[in-house]
Every structure is written in C-alpha cells, then in structure tokens.
Amino acid sequence: MLNVAHALTMVADGMTLGLGSGQAAEAFVAALGDRVRGGLKVRGVPTSSGTAALARRVGVPLVELRDALPIDMTFDGADEVDPDLNLLKGFGNALVREKIVAAASRKVVILIGPRKVEEKLVPVLGTRGKLPVEVLPFALPLVERRAIELGYPGELVRKPDGEPLVSDNGNLLLHLQVQAITNPAGLDKALRDLPGVVGTGLFLNVADVVLIDDGGKLEIRERSAGG
Q1: What are the boundaries of each domain within the chain?
Q2: Which CATH number applies to 2-120+203-217?
Q3: pLDDT in tens for each of the 227 residues of the chain?
C-alpha cells in the first residue's frame, strides 16, 4: 500500500505514535511492526483493544496515554473525507478513543485506500448515510428520542448474535440516519449537548494530512495554514 509506505517515511526513531483502528490503520501497524523488528524504536498508543492486540502481536511497544503526552503523530483511517479534510469516522465503533488520541497528537495523518476510495472521498460529510454516536447505556432511550426529534433516527449497533455491541469504553453505539450534513459543526454540538452522548463520529479540523492510495497512485492532501 503506497499510503502506508509513505506514512512509514514520516516516522522517526524515538517517536510516540497514535495507532488508529480499522483496515488502513491495521495495515500501518502491521508494517510498523516490521520496522520495529528491524530496529526502529517507537511507542504506540492504541485507539482500540483490537489495535492493541495487533500491536502486541507484531512487536510494537505500547504505552498508556498518561505517559505519552503529547503524542508525536497519529495514523488512522476514516470513513468519509470532505474537500476541507473534515472527517466522518466510527463505522468500526472506536470513535471516542480515536478522537481522544487525535486530540493528544501534534499531527494527525489519515490513510485512505486502496479499497473504497470513491466511497470515502465525499463532497459533503454524511454522503454514506450514517453517523456513529457513542452513548451511555442508561441514556440510550433519551438519546434515541431526542435524535429523532432532531431528524436523525438511529439504529443500535448489534453483534452477529443480536446482542448490543459494547464499545471499549463500556458504552453503546447508535448509527444515526443522515443525508448530506450542511452544518457538521452545528450537528456535532447539538448531539454532544444531549445528556448521555459521549461523542460523535464527526472529526472536524482534526486531520493534518490525508494520504490516498488510489489505484497505485499516491495523492497527498494537506490542510491549509488557515484551515
């Protein structure tokens, strides 16, 4: 993967790295493990239990967030990227920890492709029709009702056996039905203002660089200085 190969060139000896979740991030972690076995000295802060398990398998040393601040650079994926590099994330259900690690980082690098590139590069967030939201279990009935009142009915994320999926934080996840989100900052605030909402999948003004592997060609998009 060209984007993973380029991402590795951004990593220097001694760095502390945020390790994202999802297919693109997992490909980066696996490749990073090869570099670590070759002598590279880095530490990783995982954004999910799945990423932590993968990092341990490939030999990437892990560190707790409290011992890592500030994180030098985070590498993660995204489900949607708009022209201003705003993101919609969380289809893999790790959104809150991803947002915390991103906020703790000096630089955030997003990896897109080579799969589903056309789906993920969108003209406006919400194009793929859903927005993940993490919710305290006790608050679920209230959040579901208020989300409907805002015009965004939600579906509880469930495991294959039908039981509700529980996040690494012990919370539940709703996928809200959305269309093109014309005011993502306003929607993010309206949802986060609901008692019991822990976080949304809207990652606004977070990404610094997006590395896109599109059919064997690497495209690099960077946030403008005023963006």
Answers
A1: 2-120+203-217, 130-200
A2: 3.40.50.1360
A3: 899 999 999 999 999 999 999 999 999 999 999 999 999 999 999 999 999 999 999 999 999 999 999 999 999 999 999 999 999 999 988 899 999 999 999 999 999 988 889 999 999 999 999 999 999 999 999 999 999 999 999 999 999 999 999 999 999 999 999 999 999 999 999 999 999 999 999 999 999 999 999 888 999 999 876 55
Alpha-carbon gap, residue 204 to 188, rounded angstroms? 9
Q: What single letter denotes the amino acid at residue 219?
A: E
Selecting among 26, 80, 98, 134, the annotated active-site residue is: 98
Relative to beta strand 197-200, strand 87-88 is: unpaired
Is residue 118 annotated as part of the catalytic site, yes or no?
no
Q: Does domain 130-200 have CATH number 3.40.50.970?
A: no
Structure-token pair, residue 169: 């934080």
Structure tokens at 148: 């409907």
